[in-house]
Amino acid sequence: MTAPVLIAYDGSKNADHAIDVAGELLGGGPAELVHAWEPVTSAAVRSAVYAVAYDESREMLEREQAYAQEVAERGMERACAAGFAVTGGARQDRGPAWQTIVARADELAPRMIVMGTRGLTGVRSALAGSVSHMVAAHAAAPVLTIPLPRDEGRVRP
Q1: Which of 32, 48, 85, 129 is 20 to 30 Å apart from 110, CA to CA?
Q2: Cβ atoms within 10 A of the Cβ of 121, count?
Q3: Mapping DSSP to helix (H, G, I), strand (E, B) and coil, where does residue 12 land?
Q4: What distance in Å separates the CA atoms of residue 52 and residue 36, rounded to the nearest whole number?
Q5: Who has greater pLDDT, 39 or 68?
Q6: Which of the listed ranges 56-70, 77-91, 121-135, 139-153 does the model predict with the highest average pLDDT?
Q7: Which burial class, exposed, middle or buried, applies to 139 when counting CB atoms under 10 A from its CB (0-12, 13-18, 19+)?
């Protein structure tokens, strides 16, 4: 049996595009989608940036978990439409998103990791850094990173 593709999904327009392109290039097949997320408070503390409205309440964490699962479900629907037989969901770990993705890849041993580039913007991007760069640098599996087309947000060199 062919090893699955691991799709790293952050809910961005670029992540949607990456799924569509991967479906075209790979022809679908078995896949696992992971939406790696970290509670806002954990990311802020890890990055030495403190949220203005710091809230560690259980309700906030539950809202973040629910939202993360909604994002994962949107990605799974997109992956199914692109021809993948997909499983997966939201995964929370103690570290940044790239570590969660690499850890899952180590467990799954996928034939490839698929992800978009520069999905996040603003403060979230500053906190996360370049997730695709870090995954490519640390994963044992090949990583296919798919940028947005030039007319959809990429800056020309």
Answers
A1: 129
A2: 10
A3: coil
A4: 24
A5: 68
A6: 77-91
A7: buried
* C-beta atoms surrounding 55 within 10 Å: 11
- Pairing mode of beta strands 143-146, 29-37: unpaired
Closest listed residue to residue 17, CA positions, set 99, 105, 116: 116
How far CA 118 is from CA of 13, 131, 151, in Å, comes to: 10, 8, 15
Q: What is the pTM of this model?
A: 0.81
Whose tokens are 């940044």? That residue is: 96
What is the token pair recorded at 60?
A: 């906030």
Cβ neighbors of 155 (< 8 A, separation 6 or more) are none
- Give Rg (Cα) of the chain: 15
Whose structure tokens read 């999905």? Answer: 119
